[in-house]
Specification:
Rossmann fold; 6 helices; 271 residues; five-stranded mixed β-barrel; alpha/beta; 9 strands
Length: 271
C-alpha cells in the first residue's frame, strides 16, 4: 500500500473515534507526556488500535494519541514518540506527522529531552530550537516522493518558524524564564555520544544532542507545516560530566516539567 492509502485508512479510523479537525500536532518527548493529560474533552486512542501505527517501546513514553482542546486550540498529542533506534524505519518514525497533516494540522510543536553541548548550559535549562543538524545517517524522505505530500527537494532554511520562536521568547520573558536558544543535532542512538563525538558536535555548531526530533521536523517542513521546537537539557553531554544514564534524563524532566508545560501552554495560546 502507498503512503496515501495508509493515511486514508488511519485518518478514517480516527474520525470514527471522534477525532475532528486538528490545528496543532504535539509531539511530547521523554518525561513530558503529562501535558496530554491537561487536554480538555479528550479522546484517547492507544497506538496499538490505530491502523498502520507503530508502537513505542521506551520507558517514559505512554503510547497513545490524545485529541481535544488545549489553550483554546484543537490539538492532537503524541503521548510517547517513536525513535529510529527502536528499529523503526524513518518513514515509520515520522508517520504520525503525516497523520497530523492529513487531519489538517498547520503546525507541530515538538519537545524532547537532550544533552547539552553548549558549555553555558546546565541541566534543567529549556532551549528553543533555532535549527538542526541531521547526523542520524538517514532521512525520512529517501525513496520515491509522493508529490501530493510535498516537494522532492524541500527547503530547510526556516524549518523552525521564526514567528513561533519570537512568541515563545515573549512568553518566557513574561514568566521570568531564561529560555536558551540553540541548534539541535540528531544522532541515531541508542548509545549516548562519545566525548569525541561531542567535541565534534560543538565544533560544527551544535548546542544540544539527542536521538529524535530531526526526522519529524524534516517531514513537517516537507508537508509545509510550521514548527516550534523546545528541548529540555537533561544532562551535560559526554566528556562534560562523569557519566550518562536514562534515569537522570527522566529525573531532570520531572524537576522542570511544570515550567516546561506552562511555557508550551501559554505559547500555544498566543500562536
Amino acid at each position: 500500500m502507498s503512503l496515501t492509502e495508509n493515511l486514508e485508512a488511519t485518518v478514517s479510523f480516527m474520525k470514527e473515534q471522534g477525532v475532528g479537525e486538528v490545528e496543532f500536532g504535539l509531539i511530547l518527548g521523554s518525561g513530558l507526556g503529562e501535558l496530554a493529560e491537561e487536554i480538555e474533552e479528550a479522546i484517547v486512542i492507544p497506538y496499538d488500535q490505530i491502523p498502520h501505527f507503530p508502537i513505542s517501546t521506551v520507558v517514559g513514553h505512554a503510547g497513545q494519541l490524545v485529541y481535544g482542546r488545549l489553550s483554546g486550540k484543537k490539538v492532537l498529542a503524541m503521548q510517547g514518540r517513536f525513535h529510529y533506534y527502536e528499529g523503526h524505519s524513518m518513514q515509520t518514525v515520522t508517520y504520525p506527522v503525516r497523520v497530523m497533516k492529513a487531519l489538517a494540522a498547520h503546525s507541530v510543536i515538538v519537545t524532547n529531552a537532550c544533552g547539552g553541548v553548549n558549555t553555558t548550559f546546565t541541566p534543567g535549562d529549556l532551549m528553543l530550537i533555532t535549527d538542526q543538524i541531521n547526523f542520524m545517517g538517514d532521512n525520512p524522505l529517501m525513496g520515491e516522493n509522493e508529490e501530493e505530500m510535498g516537494p522532492r527537494f524541500p527547503d530547510m532554511s526556516q524549518a523552525y518558524t521564526l514567528s513561533y520562536r519570537e512568541a515563545a521568547k515573549k512568553v518566557a520573558e513574561a514568566k521570568g524564564l531564561h529560555l536558551k536558544e540553540g541548534v539541535y543535532m540528531g544522532f541515531s542512538g541508542p548509545t549516548y555520544e562519545t566525548p569525541a563525538e561531542i567535541r565534534f558536535a560543538r565544533t560544527i555548531g551544535a548546542d544540544a544532542v539527542g536521538m529524535s526530533t530531526v526526522p519529524e521536523v524534516i517531514v513537517a517542513a516537507h508537508s509545509g507545516m510550521k514548527v516550534l521546537g523546545i528541548s529540555c537539557i537533561t544532562n551535560l553531554a559526554a566528556g562534560m560530566q562523569a557519566n550518562l544514564n536514562h534515569e537522570e534524563v527522566v529525573e531532570t524532566t520531572q524537576r522542570v516539567k511544570a515550567e516546561f508545560k506552562a511555557l508550551i501552554k501559554e505559547t500555544l495560546a498566543v500562536l
